[in-house]
Protein: M55 family metallopeptidase
Amino acid sequence: MKVYVSADMEGITGVVDAEDVQPPGRDYERSRVLMTEDVNAAVRGAYAAGATEVLVNDAHGPMRNLLPDLLDPRALLIKGRPKPMGMMEGLTPEYDAAICIGFHARAGVLGVLSHSFMGHEIEDIWLDDQPTGEIGLLHAAAAAHGVPVALLTGDDTACDEMKAWDPTVATVPVKYAKDRFAAQLVPIAEAREAIESTTTESLRTRTHRDPRPGLHTLAVRWQSASVATHLTAIPGVTRRDDRTVTLEADMLQLYRLFNLFLRVCSSVTSNPPYC
Structure:
């Protein structure tokens, strides 16, 4: 059994603030250890379930957050950016299951460090007219490969968001949102034990899924009309209004082109996230 892990940071055990997840934040280095240990709990759980390979993709921000010297040596690691498929780089139909560690709720939802990919630069995303964020897009792209998402960890709001997309996905809330930068934390030892045991259980009970081909429509509303204007230079991208662009394609192409959207946005804006 081959298991794929996409690791974000905002939903990691003990993390609540931008200072925790953005270098050179005062607690960022400590949060790198917390992130690595949450991932290690999932790796242990995967191997307990019979995994023969676990590939971990560092999917947060600079994508250089996980500490290789502290990572379970059985895990393979994709580190750094840019990556054509961003948060799901390395996922192929060869994998039997995907796991999302440390994920957060979409923009506009009251969850810990909630946003969609780029802080306030992205106001809303819709996939086939359904509001979505990082969770929904990764789930849909994994489904296009035929790879089931077995588990997601994060705050309770992120867990609820995943359940709304797919109630069969197991979730582990490691904190309970009190506001966007405040949470009631699950004790670290308890959270990691839950990640490990739930990973094992979810992989043992996973169900096979066939790939889901077909066209989908992605719409993104940006804070800046300038971003929308630049994106219309990409073939197939149209503008719904001054700040909203749309694109129709198969899901994997949509995901890859969306990562190109992010690079265009970075080049024409300079605002940091979480403002």
Remarks:
- Residues 215-268 form a domain with the Ribosomal Protein S8; Chain: A, domain 1 fold (CATH 3.30.1370).
- The chain has a mean pLDDT of 95.
- The chain has seven helices and twelve strands.
